[in-house]
């Protein structure tokens, strides 16, 4: 069934395509950061700033293992999100028939199933959110490897971790609220 909708709603999918472009761009930046983070050898004794006389503060090898695992989980999440976004963009650009007529960024009209589009955007956003959470956990592990166990951190270590675990989840909560708001529109 093809439904004709007014011209004002036709521009909304242009916004969807722009949002998908934004997701892909941000995921690409985070993925670049992930690969840079994976080049670090956390088991190198010269890599840590912890004084070797404070053996209580030196993190165990499981922290380094978690660092690598969280990088891989984050990369997988960002890749999932980007692939969903690319698939949606491709689907919009090649759509021939579906529920709704939408205007694509080049001015052509396509027919897109809006439920599938919304579900795909929601899945892509979920992948980005989980990628950011895993990246945050990896960065906390990195701080622990560089500066010592969290229980041993001084002011500088806390100044590195507290904004990370405070600001990133706050921004993700805001992002989820905006995505859910857009999802209901």
Structure notes:
The protein starts with 6 loop residues before the first helix and ends with a helix. It is 70% helix and 4% strand. Helix 3 packs antiparallel against helix 4 (155-183). The radius of gyration is 21 Å and the shape is elongated. It has 185 residues and is mainly alpha-helical. Strands 1-2 form a two-stranded antiparallel sheet. The chain is built from four helices and two strands. The chain has one domain (7-183).
Compile the SSE list and pairings.
Elements: H1 7-38, H2 61-94, E1 100-103, E2 109-112, H3 114-147, H4 155-183
Antiparallel strand pairs: 1-2
Helix pairs in contact: 1-2, 1-3, 2-3, 3-4
Write a compact overview of the structure shown:
It comes from Artemisia annua (Sweet wormwood). This protein has 185 residues and is mostly helical.
Q: Per the principal axes of the C-alpha atoms, what is the gross shape?
A: elongated
* Largest sheet: number of strands, sense, barrel closure: 2 strands, antiparallel
Helix content: 55-70%
Spatial strand order of the main sheet: 1-2
Number of domains: 1
Output the radius of gyration: 21 Å
Count of individual helical segments: 4
Order of helices and strands: HHEEHH
Low-confidence stretches: 1-10
* Sheet/helix structural class: mainly alpha
Beta strand count:
2
Mean pLDDT: 77
Termini separation comes to 21 Å
**Assembly type:** single chain
Strand content: under 5%
Transmembrane segments: 20-40, 70-92, 121-143, 155-183
Protein name: Maternal effect embryo arrest 60
Keywords: Membrane, Transmembrane, Transmembrane helix
């Amino acid at each position: 069934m093809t439904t004709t909708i007014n011209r004002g709603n036709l521009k909304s999918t242009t916004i969807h395509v722009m949002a998908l472009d934004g997701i892909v761009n941000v995921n690409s930046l985070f993925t670049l950061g992930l690969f840079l983070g994976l080049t670090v050898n956390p088991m190198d004794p010269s890599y840590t700033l912890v004084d070797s006389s404070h053996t209580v503060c030196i993190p165990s090898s499981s922290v380094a293992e978690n660092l690598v695992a969280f990088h891989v989980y984050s990369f997988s999440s960002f890749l999932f999100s980007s692939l969903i976004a690319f698939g949606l963009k491709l689907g919009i650009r090649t759509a021939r028939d579906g529920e709704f007529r939408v205007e694509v960024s080049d001015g052509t009209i396509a027919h897109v199933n809006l439920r599938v589009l919304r579900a795909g955007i929601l899945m892509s956003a979920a992948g980005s959110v989980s990628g950011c959470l895993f990246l945050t956990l990896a960065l906390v592990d990195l701080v622990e490897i560089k500066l010592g166990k969290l229980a041993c951190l001084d002011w500088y270590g806390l100044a590195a971790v507290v904004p990370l675990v405070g600001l990133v989840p706050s921004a993700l909560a805001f992002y989820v609220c905006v995505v859910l708001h857009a999802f209901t529109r």
